[in-house]
Amino acid sequence: MTNIIALQTQTENPKDAQIFTIADDQTTSGDLSNKSPGSSKIHLLDQNIIMGTGSRNYIMKYIFELKEKKFNGDVDELTNSIIEISKSDYDSIPKEEMLNDNISLEYITAGTSNNIPKINIITVFDNKFRNRNVFSNQQSAVLGSGSSFAVPANNRDCEIGQITDRTQLEELALNTYNLSMTAAQSISVSTNLSFGIVHGEKARVIHHPSIYIDPQFINDYVKHLLSVDLKLKPNKITKKQYALTTNINSILTEFYNSFLTDIGRFHGRDISVNKYCSGLKAGKVSMRKIKEAISLRNQQKEYFAEALEAFKSGDLDTIKKYIDNHNQRVSESYDKIKEFTSV
User: What's the distance, Cα to Cα, between the start and end of the chain in Å?
Assistant: First the structure.
């Protein structure tokens, strides 16, 4: 079972829009309590992001087929390719088994078409095995079992005035993260998240460290994220290349943990502001307290903005600078604790 989300910023010029995506790493088989982490649900195909929910065998079958063909095209071409593959494969799908297990097959594709970022939703078949459909050019997409928690929560936020400023990528990404945390209330959704971003005509993905990257695809993953060509050949990895991949994995893990920490702290600061605002309405919190909370939120927002810029950069040096700055803040926090405890 799944939590996959894509949200797009609102801009005056459609070409300036950016897309932020999140996917968990959980698959479920048989009994809903039988959950298996470590499954990649977010993939890069050329400069596009694709995420799937439903029958994992078919999700990966279609994605692997396109990877093996070295798919090259925009997000609409990717969407059409998935539809064409599913048409040719339709007769071989065990329909009765799918119906009995209440299984569907849906994808979210995110990328650009004519230089304009787009989110498309593809329903290959729903849980009643009805005809396929495509919902093109969406501002948001929330799919998977977690959506039964995330969508109502988001609707309620809008009803009570907790509306996200979707003109800013930092706020949009925070909203996506909030929805993911809510979706994780589902027994079949994990809090192990992978992140994706589309900006300009570029797409990048950073996987949770638990995700195993197949050697035949690690070149593309690292090239997109760090602009480093490992020049690896499956089953022909030298000792030097193996040592290099170990170093690369260390950097990726460090970057992921720093990124997750900053978006998590931004989430925490946001909750504090919301709580204080509720207290202000009830006459139990002063305006001074609100201003202090907003100041702390804005500071953390700046740190997270740096994380997003590093993510978008696709540059090893920029990512290293962000990691160094993040670790420096951690070191300063450590020094403050030592100073306090030594008094």
Answer: 51
263 CB-contact burial (10 Å; exposed 0-12 / middle 13-18 / buried 19+):
buried
Give, to the nearest 10 degrees, the angle between helix 316-341 and helix 239-281: 60
**Sheet holding 42-45: strands in order across?**
42-45, 48-54, 105-113, 116-125, 133-135
- Specify whether the CB–CB gap between 91 and 100 falls below 8 A: no
pLDDT value, residue 9:
96
What value does the mean pLDDT take over residues 197-207?
94
Q: What is the CATH number of domain 4-212?
A: 3.60.20.10
* In the chain, ranges of CATH 3.60.20.10 domains: 4-212
Mean pLDDT value across residues 314-328: 96
CB atoms within 10 A of CB 227: 14
Is pTM beyond 0.85? Reply is yes
**H/E/C letters for each residue in 12-43?**
CCHHHCCEEEEEECCEECCCCCCEECCCCCEE
Tokens of 209: 């460290």
